[in-house]
Amino acid sequence: MRALLLAAAFAAALATGAAGAADPDVVRVNAFPNAKSLALHAGVEKGIFAARGLAVRLSFTENSTKQRAGLAAGEFDVVHAAVDNAVAMADGGRDVVIVTGGDSGMNQFFVQPGIGSFADLRGRVLVVDAPNTAYALLAKKMLRKHGLLESRDYTVKPVGRGELRLKAMAADPANAAAILNLPYTIQAEAMGMKSLGNPVDALGPYQANGAFGLRAWAERNRGLLERYIAAYVESLRWVLDPRHRDECVAMLQRELKITPEVAARTYRQLADPAAGFTPDARFDMQGFRNMLALRQEIEGGGRPAPAPEHYVDLSYYERAIATLSR
């Protein structure tokens, strides 16, 4: 029924546009080109954003450093990425606000064939996106738990997003380890690499992906942002509806240039109720507190973590959810 209503709304929006109504409101969205962008692709392709009068201009980033710089420069309105990046921006003086959750990362700590344990990474190279945020900090904490410290015991090499980390490992065995997410975990496994574990299992709850933007833009465009969040949640619901499995697998295959088999396995993991997308992009406050504590331990010299309220405003999300039928 929801799909029929969305289709009808999209058709009505098109008809209204043909009659001379105002153009849809543009939202410039930036994300990483990995499997977690599936809801964005679906929302655009299936007209879910358009049904709410939105024209989403979707772009993708090579790494989180460029993404943060683009957001700070006003090149994007909403970013979907690890929310640790929003914290890094806020701590650096940019007034950034996190407005949704997304997932706990769907990450695995992958190593080259022949590496049997964390101890085997002594003297080796860890490849990361950016060295001081998000999944790099997860990797450093996992290594620290096994007695290995950056610079003393291993070297960090920034290479960019998950796809580029996997390519770096495939191109040079000296690049010994990386945190990878979907679909690159599946591809790494097919190359003979192996996982030393899931960071959530090793370190506890973690708020990974979410949506954030400049607070000034959010405040000026409150209604627009709430419509965007509502449409994003509807897109996520569409993706997680088992009736749309085949379409989702086809989208993953096309957008990520992966095989049907990898796309099918990727979708199964995205749809996993325990470890995949968080339903309705809910925000995990305990996972966020853990993330802040981890960041302070690794990057902040062990000082007490700031209060979550400094970085998060879920009022946009709450009002958006209130407009949706269950």
The top-level CATH class of the largest domain is Alpha Beta
* Domain module count: 2
Helical stretch tally: 14
N-to-C SSE string, H for helix and E for strand: HEHEHEHEEEHEHEHEHEHHHHHH
> Do you know the CATH architecture of the largest domain?
3-Layer(aba) Sandwich
Report the span from N to C terminus. Answer: 12 Å
Arithmetic mean of pLDDT: 92
Q: Output the strand order for the largest sheet.
A: 2-1-3-10-4
Structural class: alpha/beta
Low-confidence stretches: 1-21
Instruction: Report the radius of gyration as a whole number of Å.
Output: 20 Å
Proportion in helices? 40-55%
Major beta sheet, specifics?
Answer: 5 strands, mixed
Key attributes of the depicted protein:
14 helices, globular, disordered N terminus, alpha/beta, D-Maltodextrin-Binding Protein, domain 2, 2 domains, 326 residues
Give a written overview of the molecule.
This protein folds into two domains: 2-104 and 206-322, Periplasmic binding protein-like II (D-Maltodextrin-Binding Protein, domain 2, 3-Layer(aba) Sandwich); 108-203, 3-Layer(aba) Sandwich (D-Maltodextrin-Binding Protein, domain 2). The N and C termini lie close together (12 Å). Helix 11 packs across helix 12. The protein has 14 helices and ten strands. A five-stranded mixed beta sheet has the order 2-1-3-10-4, with helices on both faces. With 326 residues, the protein is an alpha/beta fold.
